[in-house]
Amino acid sequence: MPISGLVVTFRSSVMEHSDTIKAIGDIPEIELGDAAGSKLAIMIDSATKRRDQQIWNTLQQLPGVTDLAVAMVAFDGELPIGSNPDDEKTNGKNDRTRDQS
Known about the structure:
Layout: E1 2-10, H1 18-25, E2 30-36, E3 39-45, H2 49-61, E4 65-75, H3 85-90
Antiparallel strand pairs: 1-3, 1-4, 2-3
C-alpha cells in the first residue's frame, strides 16, 4: 500500500485555487495538509501502486497545478532496500527508549 507525502505547487497563491483544492480533497485517498504561499502539502494513501499513479496523473492535470514534489514515499509491507528481514521481527522490542510511556 503506497503512502506518499507530496507538495503541490500552484501557479499562484493557494487561496486563488479553491476549486482545485476542493477537487483534490474530494479524492478519497488524499488527506490535505498545510498550505503556504503557492504550496499545499498532501498525503496519498492508496491501495495499489497503480491507483497511486492514477492519482498523481490526475493531480498533474488539475487547473493551476504546476508541480508535484515528492516529500516521502513508503510502501506498507515492503522492507527498505538493504534492510535485513530478521531485523523486522525484533524492531523496537529491545529498545527501551521506544517503550517509555
